[in-house]
């Protein structure tokens, strides 16, 4: 964890991460990924905050608060990322907490929803992180895991970058939905998918995305939902 | 190399390798990949044998001899693979040699053509293997590298399988065409590409393949050609 924490402490990495989402394909990807998350938030009460673990630069936290009407507790161990996130969510019902996924500063059964969005991939002890999330969830609370799919063209690119030692990919691990279910120890009650085109896709991206489905591509991003018994 | 040699000594692996090419998608993939190789063999004299390094179970050697009219020297260190290969190429102008890619039993400048077809990925010392291929090539001789592309959806699947410890993928490394040029130390004079659909593609595969191009997928397979100065 220390090593992982350190890499996201790099100011340039936080900026580069944000920058990609400002590109045309990055914006399309984010829109598709948030759409997949939105579907699994249907019917979830806005009365209780969502704890976002690994909230990074606050893009998802800002969207949850502004577009979806959720209060958010944004957990992020990297000060560099948190600085970006605090700026982005100023004036929104988002509170920031410095903590690790494997040691959340919340009581047992104290929260109604926990979200990991493109976070679990960078956690060295994913099983511990999932256990910790389940610990702070109330019975009936929901766990949402949004992850890069291990078999998509994007995972190929990221594996290749990781192999060349590029941060943050050199420390990333990718999962299939089935592996995520194995990590949680139960079948998900809901699952959505997003982004079937490849990193080299050309506009219009909607067409490229439809083509990716036809090509048999795995989605770049999957969101799974569990309910704590 | 010893470890790599050992894994391909497994009889089951040799059989499984062959078996995949008998599936509908495997047959389509092989047809596409050989088509990419065929394009780069145009104008190459059939008077001189092609040395195929890592000839495996002889599928490509048999095709070179039967369909393309080339004599072939098939180099393969694994006895299990070679047994399959010798059976497959019986009656064809294919001679089998037991040797490693990094130590070929041929004199300097003794051959007109050397081919690696889905082989370099499994060689622990690719730079040495390329140097050795260039050593045995005559001036004007051609080097052909047919490799899985590091950024295709297939590489994602194989990386994932490798990470789970599955042979032969746990020992594989994938390259981009640019990395292959860097390995050889010169820009290729020719390059072809094949198979843009993903491993989960559905029939008709021609349609899935066209869709993969539109989706921005990297090709599963590239063939590059160099001429020794």
Describe this structure in words.
The structure is a homodimer. Chain A is of the alpha/beta class. Chain A has one domain: 3-Layer(aba) Sandwich (Rossmann fold). Chain A has 9 helices and 7 strands. In chain A, strands 3-2-1-4-5-7-6 form a 7-stranded mixed sheet. In chain A, β1 (about 50-55), α4 (about 60-65) and β2 form a beta-alpha-beta unit. The two termini of chain A are about 30 Å apart. The interface of A and B includes residues 151, 174 and 199 of A.
Give a brief description.
Chain A has helices at about 1-10, 10-20, 25-40, 60-65, 80-90, 125-135, 155-165, 175-185, 205-215; strands at about 50-55, 70-75, 95, 110-115, 135-150, 190-195, 220-225. Chain A has about 230 residues and is an alpha/beta fold.
Descriptive tags:
homodimer, 229 residues, alpha/beta, Rossmann fold, seven-stranded mixed sheet, 19% strand, globular, disordered N terminus
Fold blueprint:
The structure is a homodimer of 229-residue chains.
Chain A: H1 2-9, H2 11-20, H3 24-40, E1 50-53, H4 59-66, E2 72-75, H5 79-88, E3 94-97, E4 111-117, H6 126-136, E5 137-148, H7 153-163, H8 177-184, E6 190-194, H9 205-214, E7 221-227
Parallel strand pairs in A: 1-2, 1-4, 2-3, 4-5
Antiparallel strand pairs in A: 5-7, 6-7
